[in-house]
Amino acid sequence: MKKVGIVIVFLLITEIFAGNQRWRHYQTDDGLPSNLTKAISRDTLGYLWIASDAGLIRYDGHDFENYKEQIFSRFVKDIHCTIDGRLLVLSDLGLQVLTGSPDSVRFSTIVEGRRNYSDEFLFYPKQIFELSSGEIWVSEPQALVRVFSDSISRYKFPGNAKTSSFLRSFQLVETEDKSIIAVSQTGLVYLFNENENRFVEFVNEGKIVGKVNASFVTVDGDIWLGTSSGLYRLEIDRQSNNYRFVLLADITSVSSIAYIDESHWMVGSFKDGI
């Protein structure tokens, strides 16, 4: 894989709309194995897990521990704590689930990945998404993959939706009415038609706001998108089949958004220091 020189900064955002912000910056000088990180997730025990190009990292509030030997590939792309408390780990070579206790961590295979395209395996996967039903989806460079217990189903998108990034491709969010919305990194928005088993594109009535790298649905049902040019809200008009982006905060190069509590979010940036 081509090495990418990217530094990640994590911001702890409080009262984001009022402009009051607090943060602490972690880098290799603080014990982080790599400054190139791509995702963060909090497990049911309160540990923070970090996806990096140096492996899978666990942070207990004091120390960083690396689990790079236990995973398919040290190039970890995403981490996700499921509704039922499982911790999923996605790397270049597949999707795994973490089991065991804090002192005895084990990993089991869900679906493997391959460096050659195959209908049975993941192909350079990017991120994990979970619906309210517990169904798992995984993004690839030009597709979204539905993961079943014993198989996968791939939904391929047009060429203008294909990512040019090693790190991100599609975002997948579920609305209050259980609709599934996909957003390509290039800023195209699609609605999943369950009856026809396909994604249908919306029309953009505004300007595409750079590369879309992260998504989050608030308790109020708003869809937030982290992009290369800021943090935005996605507004969709189902009647006109149009959508637009509304700027919420001028935080550039957003890489990830994680929920902490009702007034706190963790926002990751690919390169902007504080």
Task: Explain what the structure shows.
- The protein has 274 residues and is an all-beta fold.
- Helices cover 0% and strands 50% of the residues.
Helix content: under 10%
Q: Got a strand count?
A: 25
Rough outline: globular
Uncertain runs are 1-19
Cα separation of the termini: 29 Å
Largest sheet: 5 strands, mixed
Individual helix count: 0
Strand order of the largest sheet: 6-7-8-9-10
Structural class, by secondary structure, is mainly beta
- Order of H and E elements: EEEEEEEEEEEEEEEEEEEEEEEEE
Average pLDDT, rounded to a whole number, is 83
Strand content range: over 45%
Q: What is the C-alpha radius of gyration, as a whole number of Å?
A: 18 Å
Salient structural properties:
five-stranded mixed β-sheet, mainly beta, disordered N terminus, 25 strands, single chain, 274 residues
Write the layout of secondary structure elements.
Layout (H helix, E strand, L loop, with lengths): L8 E6 L22 E6 L5 E5 L2 E5 L4 E3 L9 E6 L5 E5 L2 E8 L2 E11 L7 E2 L4 E3 L5 E4 L3 E5 L4 E5 L13 E5 L5 E5 L4 E5 L4 E4 L1 E2 L7 E6 L5 E5 L2 E8 L4 E8 L4 E8 L2 E6 L5
Parallel strand pairs: 9-10, 19-23
Antiparallel strand pairs: 1-25, 2-3, 3-4, 4-5, 6-7, 7-8, 8-9, 11-12, 12-13, 13-14, 15-16, 16-17, 17-18, 20-21, 21-22, 22-23, 24-25
Short summary:
This protein has 274 residues and is mainly beta.
